[in-house]
């Protein structure tokens, strides 16, 4: 299992999820503020899987 750079769509999805979690931490957005930790966890998991799985 050799790591490589994730594809652009995987990186964009991960970036959007992390940005929504950060925005939910700064501004009160009901769903994103409540589940901010899980959005960051999901963004990291998607990015990590994108680095391991060959596309």
Automatic annotation (TrEMBL):
Keywords recorded for this protein, A-Z: Membrane, Transmembrane, Transmembrane helix
Record-annotated membrane-spanning stretches: 7-29, 35-53
Protein's recorded name: Uncharacterized protein
Organism per entry: Xanthobacter agilis
